[in-house]
Design brief:
- The complex is a heterodimer.
- Chain A is of the alpha/beta class.
- Chain A is built from nine helices and ten strands.
- Helices cover 32% and strands 23% of the residues of chain A.
- In chain A, helix 5 crosses helix 6 and helix 6 runs parallel beside helix 7.
- Chain A starts with 13 loop residues before the first strand and ends in an 11-residue tail after the last helix.
- In chain B, 75% of the residues lie in helices and 2% in strands.
- Chain B contains 14 helices and two strands, in the order αααααααββααααααα.
- Chain B has a two-stranded antiparallel sheet.
- In chain B, a hairpin with a 2-residue loop joins strand 1 and strand 2.
- The longest helix of chain B has 32 residues.
- The two termini of chain B are 12 Å apart.
- The chains are: A alpha/beta, B mainly alpha.
- The interface between A and B is medium-sized, with 36 and 33 residues.
Chain lengths: 265, 333
């Protein structure tokens, strides 16, 4: 089951081999493999309990697998926490929107990565450079064409789609390797979902590969370049949406059909 | 469920309008209440709006004022501290007994008294973050522990003949006809300092973030448990300083001090518009909250009303403040 570079020799940006994670008697990951290649949107789908979120947590450093290894650009890494994953350029947009809604947009984008003023005000007095953070936050938001103008606005004054926009802008701004999005449209209406799907494409077109975890099959088939299908703690297939029907993907996901691995070309 | 429906509405205008009315209410409301109360008492008696009287109001508020700084920091993180008054009393007993009975150098005695308070703050923080116990229960426990140690250690004796070096912050200087207590100046400086840290530094913003959404803060790479431990420990430092101000104000070490100050400090924080649910509030609001209580106490006394009415009014104001906060929060969900 150990996969090395794919047919065309590209090294995956992010790779996992034989991940195992047990919770007591429950085996959430049972030798799961995973590969993400440069410049793609890879969707991860699977039934409830298939180990999707455990897999994603392992890849984003939110939990430590019991066995197996994770590689970034072909190099083995150890994630002891989300910060470690971040140091390797992996940013995650969490399902429940890890935003502090009482804080404003720019404070959220720079939360945990604040910029201080130059000179003694910053070094000795630890003073924040609020103006610069707002300016840069605005640039990130405009870059993804999220139409919000005031970065001093509290996030709680935004709509669900706009909040997701802030979360995506924040990840895209700091990710140098991978953006992971966990159910980014789960709480959104149709129109706002489309806005977020557009955002996902924009992030990819900017050169960052995206991992998209989603339950929404039409959205997955609309936006993903490849689809990783997770079942019973393992990857059972990787398909390309243009060669597969949605019903086949669902069949593989539920075990009604045996999947085959489709190499990227 | 209602969330799903709500986010589909584009740009909720009406709500923005409502919010823009309520947001200033929770920030300017306390100040408005303070000014209104002051105007009322000024109209009822000439003795209210005088330099010496206002200075007295502030002087009577300085101990709770400094305690309330620590309490504000803790409440901003969505915690609560019931132990602050008892910890302060212990600190004041430690510094006075060491200096008076054991003949320890007064400055060393002050330092040790403050250190005891810092240690209690760290104990609260440690139990909350490392053992993951709820702040209410932890501080209820340490409230009793500090109270008991105070009485055991002091043998229920009030420490008198406290040397001047311990009571310096109770001394005054003159500006015109008005004598200003050094302790009140210290209190204002501590408020300004805390305002700066909360508003202008990353740590300050992290305090809000942890109170608002601890999971978001953690996922942003903030070490939330170290931050919380730090907040409780720094709160302990403020209680230690409050202990010194208490000794300065009363000139004794009183083992029975500090028994109502925990609730008084929480009252001040709530009156100042800080949300008990964490993540929202202003340190300067707390100062206003402290002064509201002080103005009512003083004003009602001046116009000859039983001081029990001050408690009545405070109770009503607390409920009013929490109601406004609840409304503001509901709008924002």
């Amino acid at each position: 089951m150990s996969e090395t570079p794919s047919a065309n020799g590209t090294t995956p940006v992010l790779e996992a081999r034989g991940l195992v994670k047990r919770y007591g008697h429950v085996t959430a990951l049972d030798g799961a493999d995973f590969e993400l290649y440069p410049g793609e949107i890879l969707a991860v789908i699977g039934d409830n309990g298939a180990g999707k979120s455990t897999l994603i947590k392992a890849l984003s450093g939110a939990l430590i697998p019991d066995e197996g290894e994770i590689l970034v650009d072909g190099m083995p890494v150890q994630f002891r926490g989300p910060l470690d994953a971040r140091r390797h350029g992996i940013e995650t947009v969490y399902q429940d929107l890890a935003l502090a809604t009482a804080l404003d947009i720019s404070e959220n984008i720079f939360l945990g990565r604040e910029i201080r003023r130059p000179g003694i005000a910053g070094s000795l007095l630890r003073m924040l450079d609020k103006r610069r953070m707002r300016r840069e936050a605005n640039a990130y938001m405009q870059d993804l064409k999220i139409g919000i103008n005031s970065m001093g606005q509290a996030v709680e004054t935004l709509s669900g789609g706009q909040r997701q926009g802030v979360a995506v802008a924040r990840s895209a701004a700091f990710a140098s390797n991978v953006v992971i999005m966990d159910e980014p449209t789960a709480a959104l209406g149709v129109k706002e979902s489309h806005m977020v799907l557009d955002l996902i494409r924009k992030v990819r077109d900017r050169g960052l590969p995206v991992i998209l975890i989603s339950h929404n099959m039409p959205q997955v088939f609309e936006v993903a370049d490849r689809v990783h299908i997770q079942r019973l703690g393992r990857r059972v297939a990787v398909i390309e949406p243009r060669n597969f029907k949605m019903s086949d993907a669902v069949a593989i996901m539920t075990g009604a059909m045996v999947g085959e691995r489709v190499e990227r070309n | 469920m209602s969330d799903v429906v709500r986010v589909e509405q584009p740009a909720p205008r009406l709500e923005g309008g409502l919010r823009s009315l309520i947001a200033p209410l929770s920030t300017l409301g306390p100040l408005f209440a303070l000014l209104l109360a002051s105007a009322y008492f000024a109209s009822r008696t000439d003795r209210f709006l005088t330099g010496p009287n206002l200075s007295l109001v502030v002087q009577q508020s300085m101990v709770v004022g400094v305690l309330a700084i620590g309490q504000t920091l803790i409440i901003l993180t969505a915690g609560i501290d019931l132990s602050c008054g008892a910890v302060m009393a212990l600190g004041s007993i430690v510094m006075t007994r060491l200096a008076v009975i054991n003949g320890v150098n007064p400055y060393l005695a002050i330092a040790l008294g403050i250190l005891v308070c810092v240690a209690f703050g760290a104990l609260n923080g440690g139990l909350i973050t490392r053992v993951q116990l709820p702040p209410f229960i932890v501080t209820l426990g340490t409230l009793n522990i500090a109270f008991a140690i105070t009485h055991i250690y002091s043998q229920n004796q009030t420490v008198t003949n406290v040397p001047d070096s311990l009571t310096g912050f109770g001394n005054t200087f003159q500006i015109g006809q008005t004598s200003i207590t050094y302790g009140t100046v210290l209190m204002f400086i501590l408020y300004l300092l805390t305002w700066y840290v909360l508003r202008q530094t990353a740590v300050g913003r992290h305090v809000y973030a942890v109170g608002n959404n601890p999971e978001a803060a953690r996922l942003s790479g903030i070490n939330t448990s170290t931050l919380l431990l730090g907040v409780y420990t720094v709160a302990g430092l403020f209680y230690g300083i409050a202990a010194l101000l208490l000794v300065g104000r009363t000139n004794v070490g009183d083992p029975n001090a500090g028994q109502t100050e925990n609730l008084a400090s929480i009252t001040a924080v709530v009156l100042g518009g800080t949300s008990l649910f964490g993540g929202r509030g202003r340190i300067m609001g707390t100062l206003v909250g402290v002064l509201i209580v002080g103005v009512f106490r003083n004003g009602l006394q001046l116009i000859g009303v039983d001081s029990v009415y001050q408690i009545l009014v405070t109770g009503i104001l607390v409920i009013l403040a929490v109601t406004v906060d609840q409304f503001a929060r509901r709008r924002q969900q």
